[in-house]
Amino acid sequence: MKVLVPVKRVIDYNVKVRVKADGSGVDLANVKMSMNPFDEIAVEEAIRLKEAGKADEVIAVSIGVKQSQETLRTALAMGADRAILVVAADDVHTDIEPLSVAKILAAIVKEEEPGLVLCGKQAIDNDLGATGQMLSALLGWSQAMYANKVDVEGDHAVVTREVDGGLQTVKVKMPTIVSTDLRLNEPRYASLPNIMKAKKKPLDEKTPADYGVDVSPRLEIVKTGEPPVRAAGEMVGSVDELVSKLKEKGIV
Amino acid sequence: MNEQDCLAALAAIVGDRNVLVGPEETAAYVRDWPGDNLAEPLCVVRPATTAEVSEIMRLAQARGIGVVPQGGNTGLVAGTCTTGGRDIMLSLGRMRAIRAVEPTDMVMQVEAGVTVEEAQMAAAAADRLFPLSFGAQGTAQIGGAVAVNAGGLNVLRYGMTRNLVLGLEVVLADGTVLDTLSALSKDNRGLALHQLFIGSEGALGIVTAASLRLLPRITRRQTALLAFEGLSEIVAFAGQARAHCSDLLSAFEFMPGEAIELATGHVDSLRDPLEARHPYYVLLEIAASGPVDLDGLLMGLLEEAMGDGRVLDGVVAASDQQRKELWLLREAMVEAQAARGPHLRTDFSVPLSRVAQLVAALEQVVAEHLPGWTSLAYGHMGDGNVHFNVLPPEGLDGAEVATRAAPARARMYEVVRGFDGSLSAEHGIGRERRAALYADRAPELLRLAEGIKALLDPEGRMNPGCLFPAAEAQKGQNG
Questions:
Q1: What is the pLDDT of residue B472?
Q2: Which residue in A139, B14, B191, B346 is deepest, having the highest Cβ count within 10 Å?
Q3: Which residues of B touch A190 (CB under 8 A)?
Q4: Which keywords appear in this protein's UniProt record, sorted alphabetically (chain A) (predicted)?
Q5: In this complex, is the C-beta atom of A236 within 8 Å of any C-beta atom belonging to chain B?
Q6: Which alpha helices (H) appear in chain A, and where do they start and end?
């Protein structure tokens, strides 16, 4: 069985996000970019399936700017076997919308015929969390979203999902699409020898046109703003003053 | 001397709430970070302005009282551990203003009580870098860092605190305020007097504010944890790394295999990033402020070093999260030692080329003097700075640890002298290493230092017993 893992190059989780002065989006110039953390978990899970003998090949896919090949090299260094880069944008600020991504992935799925697509539950840049579900609809496949445990058993997958207030276990028919939640696993570090080996692994470069997909945006971003700044604290002189302030604000 | 009278006079300067007396109120100030020493000041006083510091100093002079300045209390050599309940402990923690950040001039002016981390953040907000960085930076304060000439993780590229200070505001023993605050990189108007106070450990004056040098903000980094067979390989690799990375190397830390065990045992979320355990590791970081292909530089270096068999294995941080985890290994390893209780802690430096021989010689000392103890050699290899610590077997009490460690430490100091090294690379002298310093340095150097001390602090009231021997006459007068 092949496992297909879409990975997205996003602003690094630890970077303090700055909004562009004109409010059109987040400033990504000179900013550290890394693999979307949920996708990292998906890559790890796919590699573990391969190590457990349940998958034969792990294929990483990235759709975006040319530099996304760095993200794919990271996936290859972790243990993916080969990679497909779909260059769909020139400017790092261009975000390819979930429907376009899902259409390209659907076309790749038809070509590669994986038994499982493992994707992150959402990208931490736009937080849309829609690609996996859209892909499921386009392919007519089953889906198991927000997984914190995945067992592949023959023609079924048993997936434990994180839902409000607890866990839900579902059994889905293969081929299927599973999206990964934070607690599914802890991704490994890419070791030096594997980073070296990854440079020699195949990385195919494609365009959306190769798959007959038009990636022009359908959505318009109206405005991007910084979160409101927390108001400064106030020092009080005594317990009495504290209590009266709290009463004033209706807290006690 | 009337104690109550003195406390009242201090309260008149800083307010009742800022004169702390008794073990409970002063707990956070009197217990030192390693937990080895308990200071016994008359009181802790917390001024908020330079003028208040100056007034306190005049009061102390009039009454012949010693003053022990304190920053974040993260020192390791009992630098503020006054005894006898006679001295005022003066905490700079309320002087927290960032007076100015000037990105064009590449300088900022901050007060002594600003923490090192807050200074870093203030610089970053102006798109600049304040490069001083060490484990205790969240608590340690600028005044203290200047007073002890702190080193840390970025010395290799940016130098010690001394290299980052353009000028100071200092209050002298008689209350005089010296203002050398400056935004000038070049200023040869006579003696650079502020330099005298950097590394003076509060024994010459109290640093109340500093002009600090800024650099362009780092926008990209590559961090790697690399495995080695031994220290000689690391020493050889250090030169190779520095040359290969266009001098963009900003950290080159080494630690032994046991460090991974200590760190992962201390912090639950930590794990060993490599598949197998190795004798030694290097945590290496290269950093740049502009569009430099750091990945290409690093991979070129590592391919070469793996090709010639010097580097056995390693990982490269793929995200900032992984970078943080790698650095946390380094920090947690230090905290884990403190959690083990009293142990033999050192802070040596030797020329880089002699690090491997030094560690071998120190291990020999442990074998002879402290059989059954576990030695750990780690530190800032790029600076030739080795922290050679020895952990006692479990169950040995503090007093016994101290008794057994003393002769071993004395022997280690001799060994370090034999390598033309320093018995205090970055931690300072404090009270703990004062006698060792006097045994180590030439008499003419000590005489000159004492002459300077006598000029600035003729009554020996500035941090008595730290860096210089306590003036017995003064003690007697107040005791």
A1: 62
A2: B346
A3: 315-316, 318
A4: Electron transport, Transport
A5: no
A6: 37-51, 68-78, 98-112, 131-139, 192-198, 239-248
